[in-house]
Amino acid sequence: MIAPMPLDPQQEQALLHQAVAALQQGRTGEARTRLEQLTAAGSANPVTWLLLAIALHGLGDPEAEEAVLNRLLELDPRSLRGLIMKADCRALAGDRFAARQFYRTALGLADAGPVPPDAAPEVDRARQALASLEERAYAKREQLMSARGFPPESWTPRFRHALELAAGKRRQYLQQPTVFNFPELPQVQYYDPAAFDWTPRVEAATSEVRAELVELLKQGTENFRPYMQASDGDVRLDANQALVENRDWSALFLCENGKPDAALLERCPRTWEAVNQAPLARIPGFGPTVMFSLLKAGARIERHTGMFNTRLVCHLPLIVPEGCRFRVGNEVREWREGQLLIFDDTMEHEAWNDSNEDRVVLIFDIWRPELGEQEQREVTALLTS
User: Fold this and answer.
1) Is the pLDDT of residue 234 over 70?
2) Between the chain's N and C termini, which has fewer beta carbons within 10 Å?
3) Taking a C-beta distance cutoff of 8 angstroms, is the pair 199, 186 a contact?
């Protein structure tokens, strides 16, 4: 076999410029000829191979196009346009599984950014193509399960979650504690309040807790302070810098970092009695924290994650106008007065108040149920200050 005759740099640049000009002017066959001269000479420039693939696509030669794309991806596995075109080829060949994988890889690169402006339309098209393929795959699985005696309405929540993850209908959100990560804990966004024996007693006290809150609010909200303090440092700023020292999100602490406010507890005895039905994470100098949290009309708390995954956070909604929403991971819920939300705050979460009134919930933190007694003692010894 005769080795390809290499071109000098000037010849290579001249052929490449001629090929680009031919493509731009619609002379696709001429562009192919010039580019094949370069590849036959052993060019290892990914741009040459990408342009040749584009030319072959324009000439309607999918087999040659895919062969060229294979070489391109050997030279540059992170070629965004190359990955999208490879996905297109696999979809055209009926290999939907591979097409989805290549689209996903390309979009993962695009999401990590930045995306060149000229590639943005192709990225958008790839998103649409992937969504269509995922929807077809989901529908096929749905039909299969129904045929085997498991129609969608009978699916367990976790099985549905699994299929929606596989179909790209959901993202996989994981714990991202900003300070301390306790390993081997389940990745659960919302916990079912019915799984805890103490929740009915807390929810039953809602009207009394709300009455105590209303009495406090009669004196205004001056005692509520901005939840995010400048002294907290950069660790808690993330996307919420606009809320630092901002009363759009404010709190009134019955107990802060394990230190009760005796005067406030005298005015809210039923509230304190209610939260003490729960397994509060009692750590001197650290926990529990129990507070009324106020989110003003029109305000938003941007996505963020909590500091420690050894606890869960509980919301008891007290004053909740319509239009108040809360997202943890994939799932958006609306607060319902008197119905507890229990969630892992080390998973990405955010909140909106799109109403014309203030929203107030009672917030307190509890031990994660998965931690054993000795693990609780170990964490307490570590975090006590």
Assistant:
1) no
2) N
3) no
